[in-house]
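Reading a protein record of the kind used here takes only a little practice. An example makes this concrete, so a full record is given next.
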Amino acid sequence: MEPSIFFDFHLPNAATWFYFSLLLTIAVFFQFTRPFSLRNLDLLCLFVLVPGFLLLQEAHTLLALVPTKPGSPESEREGSSSLLGRGRRELLLGYSWLLLGSTYWFARSLLDLTLVRRPPSTSNLTTPGLACLGLALFVGMTSVALRRTNEPAEQQQVGKRPAPIEQVQDGAAVMVQKAQSETVQRASPADVQFWAERSLAMICHAVIVIGLLLIGTRHFQDRATGIAMGTLYLLIPYTAYDVGRQLHHVWPATFIVWAIYLYRRPVATGWLLGLASGSSLIPILLFPLWLSFYSRRGSGRFGTAFGSALLLSIGITALLLWWDGQAGLGLFAALNLPDWQPWRVPTSESIWKGAHWAYRMPIFILYVAFLIGVSIWPSPKNLSHLISLSAAILIGVQFWHADRGGVYVLWYLPIMLLMIFRPNLTAAEAPSIEPGAGLVSRLAGVAFRRVWSKAESSKELAV
């Protein structure tokens, strides 16, 4: 059967999507009546990191063209030397660009602490039209994520995937294999792995979009803002570049977004951040900030829930790795990698392969001092402080992380959107803890009332 012309479509490359998404973002979200507003500047600066990604993509393409055979002719060796030098220069330039853009957003996150009055955000589309655009973008991204390509496997993953996320993905693949009918031809393990990874990544993207919608509806008191944040999240090039392929990029952001949505429940947020920390390590850096946010307003419950979830996540992962004969690949093994230890020579691709690695140590010391500072000031913290400082902490990791630091934009992209679109949240502080308001106390109260009612009923029958 001859293929139809209607299905002969070609996906846009990274540069085409960059220009298209930039123009569409301006058309939909740019406030032309207030062209010099801070929100308009934020919308434009959301794209400031894209040239760095394009440079990295071109550098990897050039390095892939370098012949590896030792017996190549002299002309090929000269050409490969030129390609190798240009590729390495563009790698260094790309990571430098990403870190410069990260510096801007780090400063913007700190500046957000001083911004109290925020005008309402409106889009140039109606709310139903914006929702239709967001739904169309998600359907299009899903079709792209589930489409098989001829890309080499090594180009489909950026950065090291933590062992717990590997276990989640492998577990999903095993479940898919077991669910296949014996009467149907079984898919190959590579196909099952492909569908499991892509499906989990798209589920995470969908959960983030739903979380942004609910935060806008409940905490920002504006459903249109929630839809705008979800649509812009799907429109930004970083999501499209990583869609379906970088599960370890979007995984921690899923837990963080929902922790922000449930910020009035310290036990729930503690469990979410604890599970995220045990599975992807990064959210553990947010613990001092969130603990200070709940200071005298549920910090004990939050800390207990966080520690319990962290230990549970690490324990389950260690048990699964031990069962598979891979003990030693868990959280503590990840901490021993040079990527997380600034006093060791890095081995992964990053700016620290071009710049001297010794400069990582003072940057790391400054970062630790920053973590200590934000856990103390400001006090008390409200939801706007929590959002902006959480973004700053995740952005700050990019400067000293030696495994492609700067490319992990999806860690903090949803939080940046919350920071850009948020209204005045001065009154949104952690709720005061009332005696007996916790889940355990309520369950104990229900059990006590049932026992008491049964005792009263037995007394009446005895009389």
In short: Residues 156 and 190 are 14 Å apart (CA to CA). The two ends are 87 Å apart (CA to CA). The chain is about 65% helix and 0% strand.
